[in-house]
Amino acid sequence: MTPKILLPFAGVLAVLGLFYLGLQVDSRELPSPLIDRPAPAFELQSLTEPDRTLTEQDFIGEVALVNVFASWCSSCWAEHSNLVELERRGITIHGLNYRDERPAALRYLRRGGNPYTHIAFDPRGDAGMEWGVYATPETFLLDANGRIRHKHVGPLDAQVIREEFLPRIEQLTAEAAS
Amino acid sequence: MIGSTGFIPKSLVTVLALVWLAAVPMAQAIPLGTPLEFDSQEQREQYNKLVRELRCTVCQSETLHESQAALAGDMRRRIYDMTRSGASGDEVVDFLVQRYGDYVRYRPPLQANTLLLWGSPFLALMAGGVIWWRVVRRRRALLSDEALSDADRDALERFRRGE
Amino acid sequence: MWPELGNFALILALCLAGLQAIIPLVGAQLGHDRLMHAGRSLAMGQLVFLALAYAALTLAFLGNDFSVAYVAQNSNETLPVVYKFTAVWGGHEGSLLLWVFLLACWTVAVAVFSKSLPKEVLARVLAVLGMVGVGFMAFTILTSNPFDRLIPAPPDGSDLNPLLQDPGMIIHPPLLYMGYVGMAVVFAFAIAALIGGRLDAAWARWSRPWTTVAWAFLTLGIGLGSWWAYYELGWGGWWFWDPVENASFLPWLTATALLHSLAVSEKRGGFKVWTLMLAILTFALTILGAFLVRSGVITSVHAFATDPDRGTFILGMLAVTLVGSLSLYAWRAPKVGLGGGFGWFSRESLLLGNNVLLVVACAAVFIGTIYPMALDALNLGKISVGPPYFDAVFMPLMLPLLFLVGVAPSLPWKQGDPMQAVYRLRWPFAIAVVLGAAWPLTVGAWNPLTALALMLVAWILITTGVDIVRRLGRRQGLGARLRGLRPSFLGMHMAHAGLALVAMAIAMVNTYEDERDVRLEAGETATVGGYDFTLLDVDRIRGPNYDATQAEVRVTRDGKMVDTLYPQLRHYDSQPEMPMQQAALNRGLTRDIYVSMGQHVGGGAWTMRLYYKPYMFWMWIGGLLMAFGGFLAAADRRYRLARDRSAVSEQQVRADQPRDFQEAQG
């Protein structure tokens, strides 16, 4: 009789434990299936040089960040100075200007500085969809071979940079060098 | 434009290339409620089914069919363009799953981490059936050595009702 | 001043609930009359203080006291007065206050209307309700106090969520909470029975009307929620299998199972252990619902703003409830007798089948609802489970259930004769098959699944009619005949017929609804489902707290005028960037016509979504019939005829009445 009575208790405790774990996770974060896949292809105008066509190949070659931003996105503005700082420390950052208007985006860069090496202009979100972008800002980390190794959704604050990005960048740079 | 097809199978890329030469794709995201033209009834049905089974990933819980979000409009356009260029429903779903993960599917695929999800209703029903059978078997055995007759029971029932 | 008074009253009510949880229980154990009777006065006191707290919050809304954080978040100067009353439960904190207030109302109702209960039983029931009250009031005060001040006070509040500014929302939450809280009463009866060790047919008889009433409220609440979603969300949908909807549907499923299992417990003394389990499970599921809606584990359009502390607190309550009652159950349940025997084809066996199907359905919905969260918590991936899943697993379980509804009510207890039943039901079955097969043709193309569902609908309606006529036939004179129908019998058939109508509406609307997105300029016409929709004009109008664009759409059929509809696109002053669709409907017996406005697409053109929804009307009629069937059944005289036992101890009740016959053998 005893094991039969213990069964519902075990079930209840398992479900409650699950709920407790469920409380701890952030249910808004969406893992990207593109991790460890090559950077998705695109073909877009450059934001700064409209005559120039950029493809994913322009983002590939060294360990780099790809930052999805827009002038209408307030959390992008919040992280912008951190991007400028990262660029000053010698980290390559490419931009994907997502569902934006060119004059507004250029104004945004004049105001905040331009940390980006190349900026692809994606007014219709075409490349955004290829990259699985769903909420700006998003930041991808590419290795030297152009594979996506990490993705962060939301602004890059100091903690995210320190814990999620710097160690990985260091490691990938070391890999690329060897 | 062609370059943006990313992970679509090679054969499809050619198809898309040809179609895009002929038909101009919708320039903008498809806002909620925009009437759409299709080449065939099958295409219309496929589109209607897909937008009701795919989730808007930025919304809390809305299908693409109901969502006002900009991203949902982009996704609707992509589904529309692919459907009109002859992609099958599975191809469209695969396209989105490759970029956004299984989260976009309101109909979860049958795979390792959903075995329990799809299997448990059937297991529960089988368990229920077994329980039904065992309970009934036990109660049938009681039937033969019932101490009270039906007349006794009626009398008792009247008594308890206070009649 | 008022908010502080309200806060104080709430705290006092919590203290009273604490006393109520202990004193009557001690009294019942010691056989001390005055301690037992204290339960009633404490319940009354609790109601008075909660009413005061509730009034204080309402006054804060009416007086635009934006120094109260909750008022500032959920109201503003221009909010129409009627919505100031309903805004009290428009957010998380206030809705909890409504919850505990309704709990106090139920508790007092139990104290007043349970004269037939022996005093120990009543004392224990009130004590358990006191414990539930302590849990929810502590939750309110500690994590979600609606009286918290906001300093400095803003000059104006934000607004009540525009979606909630709607007549349907005025009564939906109170009805739903009446149902939830009623399940606490059912739970209290079960726990009282376990504590007292008294689990006979009398216990089932006492708790049955309460269960039925709570179930009827829950049915009304869910039905109204669905009705509200149908016309207010503007998507034409009425059930989305959204986690929040599922949260209310799960306890409804087990409560429905409980109703049927209680019938066996009362009439035949059987399934008592199982009935207790269902009562506990149903109450636990109402708490689980609160957890899902209020903790943020699941994202949904309908969920309240969330906070992990609240989640942890509710989880704690759930743990205490489940572990506590299961321990009690493990201790007491094995001593309960089995009840009478029955054959494989009897009313008991089919009611057991009903229970199996409902509980399996509940398990399926439960798993689908929590599965994404579970996977996420265990880091096994992120998936969505939506309508395609629920339709696939839920609907097949309902078809055999609908079939059983046609068979079981006319079957004898204990042992039925299958051949005789087949003989008796052959014509209803044949007619149902013919009707079900022909019915879809009146609406559109024939579809086998729809035909099957409609067959089952016809099957229930016909067998229900036949059974009522059979009952009527035994007496002379129409008056005497009608009096011969017991309310509980009629109520049951009413609820079953209501279920059939809901099933009919679902089958029809899922198969034959027509929906089109169109682009219309003034004077242009579009056709959906045989109806012509002509856009006449688009106007700007000003509501009390919103600007709206209103279209005038004339609906005709074969040139004959049907109606003029006025769908709106509202921009509330509080959230001008979030337009709200206000759909316009023309309801009819065989179809609804539904127009919702899209957006301006240049020039005089607008996009619109036009719907033709066959038989939608019957969904609401069916829901109402189910609920009123419940109320009717609960009003049966046999629940009220019992003697006044409020001064009688349960030992005396045991002595002056032969113990339940099944207990005697068990």
* N- to C-terminal distance of chain A: 65 Å
Low-confidence stretches of chain B: 1-26
Largest sheet of chain B, described in full? none
What's the oligomerization state?
A: heterotrimer
The SSE order of chain B reads HHHHHH
Second rung of CATH, namely the architecture of chain A: 3-Layer(aba) Sandwich
Overall 3D geometry of chain A?
elongated
The biggest sheet of chain A amounts to:
7 strands, mixed
Total E-strand runs of chain A: 7
For the largest interface in this structure, which chains are involved and how many residues does each contribute?
B-C, 57 and 69 residues
> Roughly how many Å is the radius of gyration of chain B?
28 Å
Whole-number mean pLDDT of chain B: 78
Indicate the radius of gyration of chain A in whole angstroms.
Answer: 20 Å
Descriptive account of the structure:
The complex is a heterotrimer of chains A (178), B (163) and C (666). Chain A is of the alpha/beta class. Chain A has 5 helices and 7 strands, in the order αβββαβαβαββα. Chain A has helices at 2-24, 74-88, 102-112, 126-130, 158-177, and strands at residues 43-46, 53-55, 64-69, 92-98, 119-122, 138-142, 148-153. Mean pLDDT of chain B is 78; it is low at 1-26. Chain C is built from 20 helices and 10 strands. Chain C has helices at residues 2-30, 33-62, 69-74, 81-86, 92-113, 119-143, 167-196, 201-232, 243-268, 272-295, 308-332, 347-377, 387-407, 418-438, 448-472, 478-483, 487-512, 617-634, 650-655, 661-665, and strands at 514-521, 525-528, 531-542, 546-557, 560-565, 568-572, 580-582, 584-587, 591-600, 605-614. In chain C, the strands form 2 sheets. In chain C, strands 2, 3, 4, 5, 6 and 7 form a 6-stranded antiparallel beta sheet that branches. In chain C, a hairpin with a 3-residue loop joins strand 8 (584-587) and strand 9. Chain C starts with a helix and ends with a helix. At the B-C interface, helix 5 and helix 6 of B face helix 12, helix 13, strand 1, strand 9 and strand 10 of C.
